[in-house]
Model the fold of this input.
Amino acid sequence: MVTKKRIALLFPGQGAQYPQMALDLYNASKTVQELFALASEAAGMDMKALLETADAEKLKRTDISQPAITLANLAAASVLREEGIEPEAVAGFSLGEYAALAASGVISTVDCFKLVSARGKAMQRVADRLAASEAGSAPGMAAILGLPGEQVDALIAEWREGGLTGLYAANFNSPKQVVVAGTAGALAEAEERFKANGARRVVRLQVAGPFHSPLVAEALEDFAPVLEATTFLDPRIALFSNVTGKQVLSGQEAKKLALRQITEPVRWTSEEAQIAELAVDAVLEAGPGKVLQGLWKDTSSTIPCYGAGTLADIQAALASLEQA
Done:
């Protein structure tokens, strides 16, 4: 039976969003409808109307995408729970970590939406300021394909000693992909340098700012008081941290890491390794898109990873779990 399977849930972050996501889950579940109402009140916007009408460009704004993606993530987890899936472990990529905090019982669902709303606004303000001050050459992010994380880290350290500042490793996505954040000048210079050192491709990302780097430290000032006022409990199930790549053992630790996560890199490969060591039966990507499924595949783990972001995906994943 599916309910006897040992399951880990992975929650995606920004970049996974798409217009009208999670509306199929809304139409299929009264529990999800209640979740939409809760999110709308906490975020101060009609989330159903937003997801019905917002185009891809609007959804890219971090103050919009953070509550929207979190809602889609928790909606998927809610439908999975209705189908008998109670995860043994959870992890979330960047923003997705907040859905993991809620799913593990560390924060309440209401507080989750309040936090991501405040976090999104704080980060958008920084992104807007950086874009205005740099006049068309704002800081951003780029994916380095074909180089391992250790080499990217070493190269950045070497170049910094040589005078190239404003470049940081931001996301250790997989053995084959690292995302860097930096100033416009640093990213332009680093692109050629990474290629000269064996990178297969360097892809600039369509994001609002240089997230998970010291370049967005200003967001901490706005977000810290909101975070500090929120109750964090100890995890009820295994929860893994972006900052450390390891299991979070207490609510106090989770709160400290949540603040650090804004300016420190996402150590996703380490989290995946920790989850694989649990020897779960399967991993489900609970939320929009297929990014985390691809990153899991890059680990070469024998544990299967299924999509669970749409109603059709969830039904297909349940069928696969029944057959396994």
Notes: The chain has two domains: 2-130+215-323, 140-208. The first strand starts at residue 7 and ends at 11.
